[in-house]
């Protein structure tokens, strides 16, 4: 009979190893009859040659049931004044913790244990076997029995899968294939965990489940959810029509009124801010000129803010107001670089207003140029 | 004449039926006492009722249909239901399917063949369907039933954990164990004498009506890039099921 690694070895190591270790239990620590009965049953069940797996499992199961029933009895209260020191207690606690961990890990990785390719179940059994060698009291032995129940159930399932014609469905690869379909981005640098149950690493995109759902819809005859486009189930037809007409007329007038009011406000605040800025820059210009009347200022020196492109553009914007209002003049100097100078006297200003040729200049300044 | 087919037929009488048994001639007579307009109005109401009730995919009870829509028109119940069924089919391509013949509970399913790329609206229901199909696949491939610990372990490999809030599904445990069960997609039964309590997962009646073992096997085969016949016993089972 073809045996997979896992279930084939199920009986032999446990049988030989544990039979030996259990018989060496000091019988002084608990009720003699109970422990002997337990030992006999356990070693009897396991020591039997695996002639027919099915037969074994059934017996095992019966024994486990009885075993569980027996458990509370073997928890005898320790005689007071027991000579065990704290170290021993710690050791026992350690064993109990290890058992619990083992049980937990087996429960969490059922599928892995069941897989015919894995030896995990045997390994777990061996680990429990080793732990058992340190057990001397009922409490830890109870945990061991609990583990045994778990392991034997798994063993039974594993054997079932071998026996039946169901082509073993490998859920692990199925999960991997699903992840692939959902568009998982598997990274190369995954640390290799020693245990085979480590999940494949990678980044699952946010639309993963939507993508899978879209594919899933092809296999369902689901009625699409029905939703009214316009409103709730209870809406009455005649009312909305009137309301719609009324609404259509009303917003027209109101909106127009609302708009200008808003705009006016915005413009005002904008203008205020702009005006202030403009005045400030004008003030700067004039101050500079007062100090140094003969040197016109390079336009770009004035407007360019070495730290902020946005500020630079803003500055140009403000300066343009000054120019428009005729409060300053933009000229090209000998090097054909633009320079700016404030207009000095009031009369000139007034004259210019009418006679001045209005030139429009478009300055283009790209981010790159600004950086330079 | 009692037919086995799904859908409502007059004469559906079980223990606590609220509908009196009616022969076709009785129904005719009752019909004549009402105006066409009245009956049609009831038919329309019933269609609307069914469509709205189906939004959340919670199955619809006949008791509710009688209480909330049919009311005093109970005597022509079967006629109303038949006409409503016709409207559902002709206008929407849907049909009423009975998933519980004892308590008379219905769902709506689509009778139209799926068309490639037809779903323009991808919402959370789409994502939930993705989760559902993997659970149904797992259950079927494992022999039509699976223990909850096995199902959750499988889902863990897809980054879905019952204890954690999932970025798409939120409270996954609630979704799987309550919503899907209420919608009759899944049937979850406790296994006796287990402590802590364990559960058995199976397909629910809605799953059986909205999809099939053959469909799900095709899905699995497509994901794994194999032929459905690769899994011999599941394949045979699916074939026998149609």
Automatic annotation (TrEMBL), chain A:
Record-linked Pfam families: Nse4-Nse3_bdg (PF15412), Nse4_C (PF08743)
Family: Belongs to the NSE4 family.
Gene Ontology cellular component terms for the protein in this record: chromosome, telomeric region; nucleus; Smc5-Smc6 complex
Gene name of the record: NSMCE4A
Primary location class: nucleus
Complex and partners: Component of the SMC5-SMC6 complex.
Protein name, entry field: Non-structural maintenance of chromosomes element 4
Domain Non-structural maintenance of chromosome element 4 C-terminal residue range list: 297-371
The species this protein was found in: Gallus gallus (Chicken)
UniProt subcellular location: Chromosome, Telomere; Nucleus
Biased composition (Low complexity): 12-30
From TrEMBL, chain B:
Residue stretches in coiled coil: none
Residue ranges with Polar residues bias: 19-30
Protein name, as recorded: NSE3 homolog, SMC5-SMC6 complex component
Domain (MAGE): residue spans on this chain: 39-238
Transmembrane residue ranges: none
Domain of life where this protein originates: Eukaryota
Region annotation Disordered: where it falls in the sequence: 1-34
InterPro entries assigned to the protein according to its UniProt record, in alphabetical order: MAGE, MAGE_WH1, MAGE_WH2, MHD_dom
Name of the gene this protein is made from: NSMCE3
Compositional bias annotation for Basic and acidic residues: 1-10
């Amino acid at each position: 009979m073809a045996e997979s690694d896992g279930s084939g070895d199920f009986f032999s190591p446990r049988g030989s190893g544990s039979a030996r270790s259990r018989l060496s239990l000091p019988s002084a620590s608990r009720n003699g009859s109970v422990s002997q009965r337990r030992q006999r049953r356990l070693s009897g069940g396991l020591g039997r040659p695996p002639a027919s797996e099915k037969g074994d499992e059934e017996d095992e199961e019966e024994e486990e049931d009885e075993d569980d029933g027996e458990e509370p009895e073997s928890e005898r209260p320790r005689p007071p004044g027991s000579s065990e020191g704290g170290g021993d207690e710690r050791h026992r606690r350690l064993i109990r913790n290890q058992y619990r961990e083992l049980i937990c890990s087996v429960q969490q990785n059922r599928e892995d244990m069941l897989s015919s390719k894995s030896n995990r179940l045997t390994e777990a059994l061996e680990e429990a076997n080793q732990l058992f060698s340190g057990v001397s009291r009922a409490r830890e032995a109870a945990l061991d029995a609990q583990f045994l129940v778990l392991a034997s159930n798994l063993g039974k399932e594993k054997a079932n899968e071998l026996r039946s014609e169901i082509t073993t469905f490998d859920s692990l690869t199925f999960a991997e294939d699903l992840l692939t379909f959902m568009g998982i981005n598997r990274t190369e640098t995954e640390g290799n965990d020693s245990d085979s149950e480590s999940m494949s690493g990678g980044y699952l995109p946010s639309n993963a489940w939507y993508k899978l759902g879209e594919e899933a819809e092809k296999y369902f005859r689901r009625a699409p959810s029905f939703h009214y486009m316009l409103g709730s189930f209870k809406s009455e037809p005649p009312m909305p029509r009137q309301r719609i007409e009324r609404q259509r007329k009303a917003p027209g007038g109101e909106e127009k009124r609302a708009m200008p009011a808003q705009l006016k406000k915005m413009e005002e605040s904008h203008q205020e801010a702009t005006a202030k800025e403009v005045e400030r820059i004008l003030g700067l210009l004039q101050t500079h000129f007062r100090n140094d009347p003969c040197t016109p200022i390079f336009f770009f020196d004035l407007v360019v803010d070495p730290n902020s492109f946005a500020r630079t553009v803003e500055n140009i914007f403000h300066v343009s107001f000054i120019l428009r209002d005729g409060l300053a003049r933009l000229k090209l100097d000998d090097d054909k670089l633009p320079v700016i100078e404030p207009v000095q006297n009031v009369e000139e200003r007034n004259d210019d207003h009418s006679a001045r040729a209005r030139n429009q200049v478009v300055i283009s300044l790209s981010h790159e140029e600004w950086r330079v | 004449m009692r037919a086995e087919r799904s859908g409502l037929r007059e004469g559906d009488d079980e223990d606590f039926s609220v509908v009196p048994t009616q022969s076709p001639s009785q129904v005719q007579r009752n019909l004549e006492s009402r105006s066409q307009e009245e009956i049609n109005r009831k038919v329309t109401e019933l269609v609307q009722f069914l469509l709205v009730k189906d939004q959340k995919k919670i199955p619809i009870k006949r008791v509710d249909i009688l209480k909330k829509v049919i009311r005093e028109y109970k005597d022509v119940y079967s006629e109303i239901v038949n006409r409503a069924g016709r409207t559902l089919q002709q206008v929407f391509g849907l049909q009423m399917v009975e998933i519980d013949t004892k308590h008379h509970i219905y769902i709506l399913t689509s009778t139209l063949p799926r068309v490639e790329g037809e779903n323009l609206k991808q919402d959370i229901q789409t994502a939930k369907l993705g989760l559902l199909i993997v659970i149904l696949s797992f259950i079927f491939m494992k022999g039509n039933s699976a223990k909850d610990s096995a199902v959750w372990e499988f889902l863990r490999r897809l980054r879905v954990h019952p204890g954690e809030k999932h970025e798409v599904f939120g409270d996954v445990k609630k979704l799987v164990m309550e919503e899907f069960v209420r919608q009759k997609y899944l049937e979850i039964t406790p296994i006796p004498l287990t402590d802590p309590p364990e559960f058995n997962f199976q397909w629910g009646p809605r799953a059986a009506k909205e999809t099939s073992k053959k469909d799900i096997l095709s899905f699995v085969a497509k994901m794994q890039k194999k032929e459905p016949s690769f899994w011999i016993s599941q394949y045979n089972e699916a074939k026998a099921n149609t």
